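Hi V.,

Quick status before I head out on leave. The structure for the redesign project is tokenized and pasted below; the design run finished overnight.
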């Protein structure tokens, strides 16, 4: 739909139909790379959530009456349609989230399609067990869908993280109400349209756009939502956990990180330094697993800092639609302010700003790649998630010192270790408190491998077979084998 000023206007998508928001309000979606308006998007409220939840509940029966293999076929078809429309989706994601087009093409879009195909393979393989508990009964389990899933998605990887939630939920026979981040809803709205085209029954995948504090809150409070899958900040995650307690909803929380990337003196610096730089500057640092603490053994500290500065200088920042742009803007002026405030905090705490630290001299919410040295482990810039292109380079003495510093935050999502010593990398990998540890590489994820953390990084695991636990409930069935006479 297009408004009179030619700005596209998007409604809610509920029960297979476009629905005007109860509030009559729309938010303005801008391109963070040039601050131009891209679209108007419906601002849903609690009433819209209620309508969507009712549609999702009704659709549960329809979706689960289908053969598992037929549900799989619809998911494969959706993956095919995502592939067919990928140039459109890549451009939408680039413009809406301020991501360089090359990285959306290389990473976000292929990962989203791969995720849909991977989980399309699961519906007819989600099996129970016959457990021979006793001779007088046939005892077995089946795995039922948890029911209606509320999926709350952040703005840093809108399509990829959205599909991380949608695909396994569909594979398990669940229906969904999806709430994209208010700033970046465009690709998930399009995915829901493509899902209808693929043959997904109306009501199975509903999209209610709007504010987190309104739509997200209403989803968490709604008694008809059986499960919330959330990716976002620890503060909002805590509120969701408290809200879910009111009706004992199941929840999965994928939260923040302050990941350590540990470089020992014997590491291959030609590999370690470029990976450490992209580990923190990729997606302008708006990555939950950003290696924002670069721990460097003292013998190579100065050399690593010099090389990191050279890498930061070489990063091409600017127009995200250009194929050679490496770093885009932050997602909003608010996020830019948060990051620049952290730069000030770092300076006031006594860390040395050796590169960057300012807003780029261009339109859009661009911040320079930024490097601090002389960072003490206790400083706020070393303990708190900044979610911007800010690296703290921290020296360490030996393995014990590295592990102490790496494990010394409230987060535990990911970590990296670089060394030529095969025994050391395994020992350190085991000692690091992190859901994922990369050895002599950094930042890769694959939908087949579990993903998640503990503490302020949340709980539960997405990806792979682990995600199926999130969307199914085991049911025990006990069939008596006693003859009727004996049962009396
Ligand atoms: P956020 O917590 O501000 O928002 C996330 C989502 O929650 C958005 O859709 C938002 O609208 C919604 N929301 C906001 N208030 C809500 C409320 N009261 N009730 C329900 N929902 C509400 O996070 P963000 O700024 O969009 O994303 C950045 C955060 O996400 C960072 O902390 C980052 O580390 C984390 N993240 C984690 C992972 C992971 O896999 N662990 C991946 C990406 C991002």
């Amino acid at each position: 739909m297009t408004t009179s000023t030619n700005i596209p206007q998007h409604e809610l998508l509920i029960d297979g139909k476009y629905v005007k928001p109860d509030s009559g309000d729309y938010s303005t979606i801008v391109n963070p790379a040039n601050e131009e308006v891209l679209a108007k998007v419906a601002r849903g409220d609690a009433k819209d959530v209620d309508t969507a939840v009712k549609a999702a509940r009704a659709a549960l029966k329809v979706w689960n009456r289908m053969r598992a293999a037929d549900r799989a076929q619809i998911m494969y078809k959706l993956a095919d349609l995502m592939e067919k429309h990928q140039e459109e989706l890549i451009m939408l994601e680039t413009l809406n989230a301020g991501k360089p087009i090359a990285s959306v093409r290389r990473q976000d879009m292929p990962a989203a399609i791969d995720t849909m195909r991977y989980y399309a393979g699961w519906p007819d393989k989600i099996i129970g067990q016959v457990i021979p508990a006793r001779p007088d009964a046939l005892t077995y389990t089946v795995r039922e869908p948890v029911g209606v899933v509320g999926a709350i998605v952040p703005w840093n990887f809108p399509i990829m993280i959205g599909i991380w939630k949608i695909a396994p939920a569909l594979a398990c026979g669940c229906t969904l109400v999806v709430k994209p981040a208010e700033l970046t809803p465009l690709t998930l709205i399009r995915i829901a349209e493509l899902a209808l085209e693929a043959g997904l029954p109306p009501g199975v995948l509903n999209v209610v756009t709007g504010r987190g504090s309104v739509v997200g809150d209403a989803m968490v409070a709604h008694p008809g939502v059986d499960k919330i899958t959330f990716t976002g900040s620890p503060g909002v995650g805590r509120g969701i956990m408290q809200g879910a307690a009111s009706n004992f909803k199941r929840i999965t929380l994928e939260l923040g990180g302050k990941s350590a990337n540990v470089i020992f003196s014997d590491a291959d610096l030609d590999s370690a330094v470029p990976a450490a730089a992209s580990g923190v500057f990729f997606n302008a640092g708006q990555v939950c697993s950003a290696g924002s603490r670069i721990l460097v053994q003292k013998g190579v500290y100065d050399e690593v800092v010099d090389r990191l500065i050279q890498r930061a200088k070489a990063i091409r920042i600017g127009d995200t639609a250009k194929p050679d742009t490496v770093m885009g803007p932050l997602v909003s002026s608010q996020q830019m302010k948060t990051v620049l405030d952290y730069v000030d905090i770092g300076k006031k705490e006594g860390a040395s700003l050796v590169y960057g630290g300012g807003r780029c001299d261009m339109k859009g919410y661009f911040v320079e790649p930024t490097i601090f040295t002389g960072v003490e482990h206790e400083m706020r810039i070393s303990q708190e998630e900044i979610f911007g292109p800010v690296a703290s380079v921290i020296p360490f003495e030996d393995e014990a010192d590295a592990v102490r510093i790496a494990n010394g935050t409230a987060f535990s999502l990911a970590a990296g270790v670089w060394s030529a010593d095969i025994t050391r990398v395994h020992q350190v990998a085991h000692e690091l408190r992190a859901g994922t540890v990369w050895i002599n590489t950094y930042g890769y994820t694959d939908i087949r491998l579990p993903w998640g953390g503990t503490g302020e990084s949340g709980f539960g695991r997405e990806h792979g077979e682990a995600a199926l636990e999130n969307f199914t409930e085991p049911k025990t069935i006990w069939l008596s084998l006693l003859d009727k006479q004996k049962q009396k």
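Above is the designed sequence. The mean pLDDT is 96.

G. will cover questions while I'm gone.

Best,
W.
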